Each structure stands twice: as C-alpha cells, then as structure tokens.
C-alpha cells in the first residue's frame, strides 16, 4: 500500500509547481519532501516527476496518479473539517472532582490535551477526597476508585490498574522480606489513603484472598510521596505496576510476596442519572478512556 503521507506531499508539490514553494507552504524542509517522494516512486516502481536543476514536471503516469492523489487530499481535508466542526459544537463548562492521590501533573496533561481538541470546553477541576454530591454541589463528573456503593449514579469504567507490594533493597536488607502475608504484621507499611484508611491490605485473588495487617509507619494521600518514602527505605508500599515501572526495571524497588497477586482495582467516571447525558460529558469520558487504556505505558494516574 502506498504511503498516504507521500501521496499528499506529491500532490502538494504538483499544486505548488515545485519543491521550494511546496516546502514554504507546508513548512517542511525541501530535502524531506524530495526524499519522501523518491521513496514513493521507489515503492510504486514508476517515475512520477521529471526533475532538472530548475524545473519539475509530471510524467504521463505521474499526471494520472496526481488526479487520484488530489482527490484523496480533498477528501481528507473534508473529513478533518467534519471532525473540527463536531469538536467546535461540543462546548460548555464541566466541573470534575478528582481524588487527591491522582497525579496532578498527569491529569493536567490530560485536560490540556482535551481542551486543545475541544476549544469551546471550560473545565473546573477540584482535587478532593470528600464524597462530593454530584447534583447538590454542581459536579458533572467524579473520578472514583471501585468498588462503588449502590446509588442512583451511573458509573463508567475508565481503566484498571494492577497493584503490587513493593519495597526498596535497603529496607529488605535491614528488615528482611516477609515470607507470608501474616509476616506483614511485623513490618512497616506506607499507607496510601485518607485519615479513615486502616492499615490493612487485601492480598490474593478470588478464594485465595486474605486480609493482611501491618505496622503503619506513614499514612499519606499522595501516591508520589508513598513511592518516595518507599524508595527511601521507610517501609513496604502498595503501588501500581505502571507507576513504578522504571524503579522496578532499575532494581530500586522490588516486589514483595509476588506469589500473592492482588486483584486489579477499577477507576470509574461517575455522573448523575437524573440529567440527560450531555455531549461534553460523553466527550470527556471517551477521551479519558482512550487515553489511559491505549497508552498505559505513557502515564499512570497513580504515578
């Protein structure tokens, strides 16, 4: 299959009557355009353009090929115009409640990309661990960790994350590594949670599941700080695999009790069923889901 980008560049060169003018109009180096078209000709096995030191002209087969490339180019522009028109139609304010433990840098990146795609959207983001009232407090969406309590709210699964127990080599050297979940009772733990969170971790899956207690060294509602304290040898922490990929690869954090895999946790986008689902809510949840399920290795909300 021919390179679509090469076809578009070829059509641009023909319309501009040369490489130099096409380079100015497109904003790409002349050498890049020339190389791309040469690659296209090699792929097709034909000469599309006759070149000399001063002029560029179409070959006979090039003229026929250009008609199709030009038609495709206009179709692509029309398709882009439809999408841009749709994006411009989605507007209005969105008030969103986000847990404090979400990375503000990552969520800021998401919102920036979303507003670039939908320029008529206005966002009001509040980081809070309070159980916000969507209707009473005027929120359109709340990002929540599962499991969720039954309510008249609608919950859409956004993504899953795989948690695991981790510790630094320094901590293990000083305190050893627990051999069983029951051994955690003698170990320091760094607890990610609110003031109501108890020093208990649910380990294992399905019927092979146990509740393990530990000595709470620190409780904090920032996963970034939990990871920092774990790296500094203060205790064992439960963090997501995604948020610690680099540290695991470098050996700065190591798995604890890997034979007790933990059930993944769900992250939901919650909205009220009392109102008609607005297009801007749909757009945000769609964008959120696609960004974090297809690009998990790029960012983690719990990093």
UniProtKB/TrEMBL annotation:
Family the entry assigns: Belongs to the LysR transcriptional regulatory family.
Which GO-annotated molecular functions does the record name?
DNA-binding transcription factor activity; sequence-specific DNA binding
Q: Domain HTH lysR-type, which positions? A: 1-59
This protein's name:
LysR family transcriptional regulator
Signal sequence extent: none
Q: What biological process terms from GO does the record include? A: DNA-templated transcription
| Record flagged with keyword Transcription regulation | yes
Q: Which SUPFAM superfamilies match?
A: Periplasmic binding protein-like II, Winged helix' DNA-binding domain
Q: Which InterPro entries match?
A: LysR-type_TF_proteobact-type, LysR_HTH_N, LysR_subst-bd, WH-like_DNA-bd_sf, WH_DNA-bd_sf
**What lineage does the source organism belong to?**
Bacteria, Pseudomonadati, Pseudomonadota, Gammaproteobacteria, Alteromonadales
Q: In which domain of life is the source organism classified?
A: Bacteria
Q: Which UniProt keywords apply?
A: DNA-binding, Transcription, Transcription regulation
From which organism does this entry originate?
A: Paraglaciecola hydrolytica
């Amino acid at each position: 299959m021919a390179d679509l980008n090469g076809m578009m560049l070829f059509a641009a060169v023909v319309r501009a009557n040369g490489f130099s003018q096409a380079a100015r109009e497109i904003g790409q180096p002349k050498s890049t355009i020339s190389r791309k078209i040469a690659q296209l000709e090699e792929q097709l096995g034909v000469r599309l353009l006759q070149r000399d030191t001063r002029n560029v002209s179409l070959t006979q087969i090039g003229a026929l090929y250009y008609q199709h490339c030009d038609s495709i180019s206009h179709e692509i522009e029309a398709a882009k115009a439809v999408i841009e028109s749709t994006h411009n139609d989605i507007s209005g304010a969105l008030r969103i409640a986000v847990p404090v433990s979400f990375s503000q840098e990552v969520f800021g990146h998401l919102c920036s990309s979303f507003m670039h795609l939908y320029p008529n959207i206005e966002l009001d983001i509040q980081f809070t661990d309070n159980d916000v009232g969507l209707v009473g407090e005027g929120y359109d969406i709340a990002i929540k960790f599962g499991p969720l309590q039954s309510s008249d709210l609608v919950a859409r699964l956004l993504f899953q994350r795989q948690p695991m127990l981790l510790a630094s080599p320094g901590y293990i050297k000083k305190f050893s590594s627990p051999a069983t979940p029951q051994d955690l009772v003698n170990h320091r733990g760094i607890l990610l949670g609110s003031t109501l969170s108890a020093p208990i971790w649910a380990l294992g899956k399905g019927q092979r599941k146990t509740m393990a207690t530990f000595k709470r060294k620190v409780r904090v509602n920032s996963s970034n700080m939990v990871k920092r304290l774990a790296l500094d040898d203060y205790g064992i922490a439960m963090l997501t695999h995604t948020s610690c990929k680099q540290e695991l690869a470098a050996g700065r954090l190591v798995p604890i009790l890997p034979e007790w895999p933990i059930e993944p946790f769900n992250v939901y986008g919650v909205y009220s069923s009392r109102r008609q689902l607005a297009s801007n809510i749909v757009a945000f949840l769609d964008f959120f889901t696609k960004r974090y399920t297809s690009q998990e290795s790029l960012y983690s909300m719990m990093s």
